[in-house]
Structure formats: C-alpha cells, structure tokens
Amino acid sequence: MLTLRFEHKYLDLNMKKGGGVFSLGYTVFSNIASMTDSPLKFKELIMTHTYAPPDQLVSMIVKNFTRQGVFQFYKLIGSSDMIGNPVGFVNKLGSGVYEFFNEPKKGLIKGPKHFVGGVGKGVTSLVGGFTSASLDSFSKITGSLYNATKDVAGQRIEHESAPKNMAEGLVSGAKGGFSEISSGIKGLVSNPYNHAKKGGIGGFFKGMGKGLLGAAATPITATLKATTSITQGLNATTLTLTHGKVKRQGRYRYPRIV
Question: Phi/psi at 3 (nearest 5 deg)?
Fold first, then answer.
C-alpha cells in the first residue's frame, strides 16, 4: 500500500502572506496527493556482458526505471483519494467481473450441480465487488474532504482505525459526529482565551476568528466524519459477506536448527 500525505501549518489569514491563498492551495494539493493502494509495477532490468564505467551503469538503471515510472504516472493520478481512487475502483470491479465468469466455468467442469453453485458465487462476487468498490471510493472522497475542511479551519485531525463491520461503523460515525460538534462549540471559547493570553487584544480577535471559522465548519466536518465511518463499516461488512472472514496466515516456513 502506498500512502502519501503532507503536513503543513494552519491556514494563515495574514494579508502580507497572500491572505492564506498559498496555504489554502497547499492544503488542496496535499489532500489530492493522498494516495492509497497505487498499483505501480516495475520490471527488472537485465544486463549481460556489460562493460561500462559505473556512472554509465547508474545512468542506464535510472533511465530505465524513470521511463517505467513516467508510463505509470496515470496510476498515481487515478489513485488519489480526493477523487475516490478510480484505479482501485476499476481493479475491484474487474475482480468481481472476472469471478462472475470464472466461477460458473469452474463449476461446469465438475457438473451441473457445481455449475449452479458457480453461478451463485459469480453473481455474489459481481454484486459484492461493485458495492465494495463504490463504498470504498465514496469513503475515500468523504475522508479527503474531511481532512481538507479540518486543515482549512485550522483544527487538528485525529486519525482512527477503520471500522471492522457495520455496527462499529455506526458507533464510530455517531461518536465522531458528536465529537466534531462538541469540539466546534468548545473552540468558540477556548480559542479566544488561549490567543488572548499570548497576544492580548489582537490575539483575542484572532482567536475569535479561528473559533468562528471552526464553528462554521463543524456541521460539515461532523457530517463527513460520520459518513466516512459508516461507509467504511458497510464496506467491511460487504467484503465479509462476499468473501467470508479472511483467515490470518501463520509462518510458511518455520526456523530450522542448524
């Protein structure tokens, strides 16, 4: 899994620094650059009977992998969480379509009874693949919008583990939404007070502006937080119903005593 994320300072509304335009642009870019499961594949470079200086060999290797990376650049753009990771969506949907045709074919070889069971497995894989891919893409979009909104509002982002099932998603969504609302209300009081202690009257008004901005963003962040957790839980339940519980694999090769 490839995950890229950038951190930056909170939005600065100082007009001498562009009124926060640069910070806002960086916030948007950093969330677009957040990628998950980017399927980059690089082929090996085989060179035989090569006689060349070390710098020339290094140059050949760099050019080879650079060329492969350029040809796969579209996968990086398509793996952005901000746009729902369309490359991942197509991959998951393709797996469901493949099993939709492959399972009946495997059953047909064994007999009519297995063919009917294969058709059922194929349909389940197709529907489950489409549902899982849709929920996963939607949760990535809402999650990226949540992070971007929190960044713009100058609030700290709390990362949590994804829910393992629908029940956990509902509970996590309700808790996350309530936490966002309480945090926004608390910020109306704490931000002016904390900034006033450091910067006096000027800090008070700065804190008041930050508190109002956070309170205005609270309904949006609460909705996005709850939606992300719920869709992640639904996606996990869909995967469990489609493929069953994934068994944990132990060691493939135990230590040998020499």
Answer: -125, 120
